[in-house]
Each structure stands twice: as structure tokens, then as C-alpha cells.
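task queued by scheduler; priority normal; single chain, no ligands, no partner chains; default sampling; output format set to C-alpha cells
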Amino acid sequence: MRSAAKLNQDVHSGGTLLNLRLNEDLVSTKRGQSNLGAMIQTFFSLGAFHVQFNTISTETLRKAQKNPENYKDLLVRVAGYSTQFVNLSRSMQDAIIARTAHENY
């Protein structure tokens, strides 16, 4: 996050965007949420413009692809807006999974 914050935000129209994937266990407690808040505050204090986090597991996203009727309330962040994962095209769903996956899918 420090490296991303070093980028010159002024030369990019609308700033830059950093996508991060965090294990959902890291933010499931009050302490984890507090730590995330501190990370965000520090990131912006370093001059960064935008960060978005994904804490949904690849497994959950794949289940949503297979059984969309069970995941109608699953929201994902897509380049500046949030939407229901199941309403995205299959290729966009795959792109969301690919950008957040740490393992082979």
C-alpha cells in the first residue's frame, strides 16, 4: 500500500485505484475491522486516492456462479460501482474472480 501511495496521483485522471484481496477472517472481528480502518486512514494520509477491498472467497464466488438464486444479495465492487455478482455476465464474473484469486481456480 505504501508503494501504491507513492504514485503521482495528479498525472492520472481521477487518481489511481488499488484493488486488494483480504482473507475474510482478517475483517470478521472488531479488531480486524479496526485494523482495516487504520490501514485505510494511513493509505490516504500518504496521498493515495482510492482503494477497494474484496473479502469474499473464491469458493463463495464460484458457488454464486453455480447457484445464483442463493446469492442474490452478494455485492461486488466493479471499477467504481457496486453491483450484485449474479447480475454480471459470466465473463465479468470470471474477471472479478481472477482479479481476487490467490489460488488456481
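post-processing summary
- The chain has four helices and four strands.
- Residues 56-105 form one domain.
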